Each structure stands twice: as C-alpha cells, then as structure tokens.
Amino acid sequence: MQADLGAGAGRLPALVIANATVFDGSAAPRFAADVAIDGDRIQALGRPGSLRGSATIDASGLALAPGFIDVHTHDDRMLVDGGGMEPKVSQGVTTVVAGNCGISLAGLSGRGRPPQPLDLLDPAGDWFRFPTFRAYFEAFEQHPAATNAAFLAGHSTLRIAAMDDPGRAASPAECRRMCAAIDEAMEAGAIGLSTGTFYPPAAAAPTAELIELSRRLTAGGGLYVTHMRNEAEAILPAIDETLEIGRACGIGVVISHHKVAGLANHGRSVETLARIADAMQRQPVALDCYPYDASSTVLSASRLAMSSRVQVAWSTPHPECAGRDLARIAADWGVSAEVAVQRLQPAGAIYFMMDEADVQRILAFPETMVGSDGLPHDASPHPRLWGTFPRVLGHYSRDLGLFPLEVAVHKMTGLPAHRFGLHGRGVVEAGAFADLVLFDPATVADTATFEAPVQPAAGIRAVLVNGTPVWRDGQATGARPGRVLRRGARP
Ligand code: ZN
Ligand code: CU
C-alpha cells in the first residue's frame, strides 16, 4: 500500500472511496483502505481515513473490487446499439470480451438475414454492417458504450463472408480470404480468433483449416477461443483438438463456457478438468464458465434428447411463446416437440442439461474464469445475462462457501485480465485504470430467474469505468466512458 497523500500533494483527487474493504483482484486477503481516483486512474491507496478528495463516498462495510471482466459475451451489437449495457453495469461488469463462439458482428456486411447462430446477434441482419474491425471500432469510438470491450474475430462470421457454401472445408482461396480478414482484425486491435465448430456454419471446418487460420495469431500473440465441436459424449476429443491447435500455432487457447452436457455425461467434469490440468503443465490453456446448470443458444431439435426441460427464449413467428416451456407449447398445439421446434423457427431456447455437481466442480477449478454467455437480444433471456457475477459472489461464494470471496473476485478480475492481456485492468493498485465496483458482500445476489430474467442484481452500490460512475444505487448514470481495449495496448 502506498503512503498517504499529504496536504502538500497539491490538488485534491476528484474522488475518494473511504473506509473500503479492498479485494484487489489478486486473490490476496482483503484489507481496509481509502482509494483515491483522479481522471481515469486510481491515484493512491492509503490507510482508512487518511485520504481527502473533492468528493467522498463512505464505503464502510462495503467491498471494493476491480470492475468485473465478462470474458464470454455476445455483446457486439449492444455495445454499438445505444451502448447503455445495463445488464452488465448493473452487475459490476466494466469490461466485456465480445465476438465469442465464432460469432462477431464485425467482418460481414450486406448479406441480409444471417444463418443460425449468427442470428443470436440480430435475426433481421440489419446490424451486420461492419465489413472490417476498423469500421466497427470507429463506430464504437464515435459513440462509446458504458463499458470497455475487447474483441475476437468470429470464424463463423468470416466463413459466411468468405464462402458460398460453408457446409464443407474452405478452399485454399477461401482460406486466404479468411486469413486476410484475421490480419485486418488483429491490426485493428482484436485480441484473437473465436470458433464455434459446434454450429453448422463452422462444423465442416477440419482441424487443418483451424490451424491454418490460427497461425495468423502467432506473431501478435492472439488467443484461440473456442466453443468446441462437442461438449457431450465426444468432449475429450474436442479438448484434444483445441490443445493441438494451440500447440501447432504456439498460442494460448481458451475453452469457452466449459460444461459437460447431457444426462449420460453427468459427472464427467472429473475427466475433462484432469485433461485440462495436465495440458496446463505444457501449454497455455484457460477456461471460463457461467454459474448455472442450464445452457442457452438457438432452438434445435438435436438438443431435446439431452435436456430434461426446454424453455423458449425467443421466436420470430411466435413471440408469445418466449418464456414458455416447449413441452407445454407442443401440448397446446397438439403436436410433437419436434414439430413445435420447426414451427417456432427461427428461435432460441434454454436447455436444462447439466449436472449441478459438474457446474460447481468446474467453477471451483482454480483456473476457471467467469463469463456470462448472456444473450442480450433474447425476449426471455437466460438469467445469466443479468445474474452471473452476483450469483458467483452471493450464491456460490457466500452462501454455499464454494470458495472465499477473494477467490471469487479473482476469477472475474485479475485472472481474466492476465489471461486476455488487458493491461492495467483487473487490479486495485495505484496507477491502474479506475474500473471499480463497490458492493455489499452481505447482500450481493442475483435476482434474475428463469421465470423473471430481466432483473438487476441486489447489493451493487456503485460502478466506475475509467473513473466515471456508470451505476449508482440501482440506476444507470447514462455515462458512456467505455473504450476499445486493443491487443497489446499498454497503460
Ligand atoms: Zn458458445
Ligand atoms: Cu457464447
């Protein structure tokens, strides 16, 4: 901790958060301190009661942590479509990583209605209007969002842009087009490539194609971030493919929303985590998860058999079905679940298909980061969109005692900042960016449920992005201080 700012230090800092219990993001034990903020930075830390500022927030009894980093989002459109980011700032999130699961908004334009799963960002396709990452970043910076954001280039998006038929391996010419697009994204400041080989636009891509494209990341230290080909019975080969790509290209890999899906595979996180822990001895591997036993993506009949229950999240022809159980809809219509799925398309759904013991084992794994995978444009979204971070802090850390609060905060701050190369973020220390969240550790909780999913969290008192308050006492302030966090940018 730094020495106190004496009276001789000159001009007062703009804001002092006084008497806070600081969780500095490193998983080190909490400590009591005053924190002074000036401009976009943390200016100093001092003994409780020692710092003076032009304004003061009394944080007695409250926790002060680095702003949370949501490492797995589909916020590409929300960031440039108003940019208020209420589902995120209400939880204490100050930075999001967008462009996940092979889906980026940038890199495709003028193709009309996009195929699944690109339609999760925009069923109509009007927002696919950024042919390059440079164009998208310019749009963001002309009208910034409330949070910071780092971006991945989406392999499925690039495939749709480069190929007339994505149902096969890319030709050499198509690979060259995608490589050029990845080069453009990385030069503009993207932090890596995401893939979603689980989904049809990329499922036909062989490992060789993924390696050829990922080699474009090697020179700049980009990350390979993946929604793997299989998260069910063939999950171990899918993990091995991910590891092979990382080794072949000499790059770090991130396994997105790690889970083991399907009743028959419950309990197998014991095997997957052992495989991942073993690989970590030899190569850089990271992973994230969301704290729920239900997943959410496009509605597809192929997932019915592995789910105990399916809830519709949105449907273009039947918007009245959002939030309802598929089984009830099918019964009302007097048809099978498969026929109901067809009638609802295009649509999204929530699938109850995981084992709570797996969820807890994965979340508690020391290297696991927190990512919401929230879908901000769904009519009745999975509650992870509004509840992920307070659920880890409140339900899993405080109420179930899965890990100490210091560890919970680390999983959503210092750990992801390190893994994603977000310099000057994810820590509370002098000189770091003033991305901060003040919360009440006794009451912090997710209030969003599967029945009522659009609900701000409880216990989040104040959220600052680059020194500017974006959330105060249950309300967005309307400020938009967010920045594009470019690969390699130093504070
Ligand atoms: Zn995914
Ligand atoms: Cu995702």
Descriptive overview:
The protein is an alpha/beta fold and 491 residues long. It folds into three domains: 15-66 and 427-476, Urease, subunit C, domain 1, CATH 2.30.40; 68-297 and 350-419, TIM Barrel, CATH 3.20.20.140; 298-349, D-aminoacylase. Domain 3 (Dna Ligase, domain 1). Helices cover 28% and strands 22% of the residues. The chain has 15 helices and 22 strands. Strands 1, 2, 3, 4, 5, 19, 20, 21 and 22 form a nine-stranded mixed beta sheet that branches. An eight-stranded parallel beta sheet has the order 6-7-10-11-12-13-14-18. Helix 10 packs across helix 11 (337-344). It is globular, with a radius of gyration of 22 Å. It starts with 14 loop residues before the first strand and ends in a 15-residue tail after the last strand. 56% of the residues are buried. The model is unreliable at 1-8 (pLDDT under 50). The structure holds zinc ion (ZN) and copper (II) ion. The site of zinc ion has 5 residues, from loops.
Describe the protein's topology.
Layout: E1 15-22, E2 31-38, E3 41-46, E4 55-58, E5 63-66, E6 68-70, H1 76-80, H2 86-89, E7 93-98, E8 108-109, E9 129-130, H3 133-142, E10 148-154, H4 155-162, H5 172-188, E11 192-196, H6 200-203, H7 207-214, E12 223-227, H8 235-249, E13 253-255, H9 269-280, E14 285-289, E15 294-298, E16 309-315, H10 326-333, H11 337-344, E17 347-352, H12 356-364, E18 368-370, H13 384-399, H14 405-411, H15 414-419, E19 436-439, E20 460-465, E21 468-472, E22 475-476
The structure holds zinc ion (ZN) and copper (II) ion.
Zinc ion (ZN) is lined by residues 101, 196, 227, 256-257.
